[in-house]
# Entry
Amino acid sequence: MKNRLKVLRAERDWSQGDLAQRLEVSRQSVNAIETGKFDPSLPLAFKLARLFERPIEEIFSDEEGTKDVVTRD
Amino acid sequence: MFCTIKSPARRRLIRSSLIGAALLVLLAVGVAESFRFWHLKGLPAYVVAVLPALPILWFIVEWGRFLAAEKDEFQRNLLVQCLLWGTGGTLATTTIWGYLEDYAHAPHLNLIFVFPLFCIFMAIAKFLVQLRYR
# Structure
């Protein structure tokens, strides 16, 4: 799953550590999510959405879903 | 263990692991010495012989408590991965060794080495998992 965490974080000038502190998780967790190595659970995705004040689908994008849309077009 | 900012659950796990390891060494040495000096038999032998296994049971309980208490799902996921690799490695090794003992006359593997073997596989898994998520 792709995500825009790095961009959203940069817009606020937050480090991975800052975001981790706000989410109450480890910096390693933020890094794993940001690099797409770990997909967060729905509650954590909602927490991120609330924190960045964006809908979940603006932060995370499903590659399969994008492929479907392209195929249908 | 996995991160620099340690959650209360992780701190507890580290503290318990250190105490458990110290107790394990103390009890293993103490029990071996007890049997050497007192030649215990019958019920006392059963009671004393089982003592070094108690810290190991405590380790297992503490891993369970960590998984229940840790709020960081990624950290829980890391421990689960290590536990699975530890379990898989131990099952594979002991099964293969069992057949080697039966048919190839390999030396007998004392069951008290199963838990240390599990810990070795977990440590290897932790190293590899850490590399992946570095």
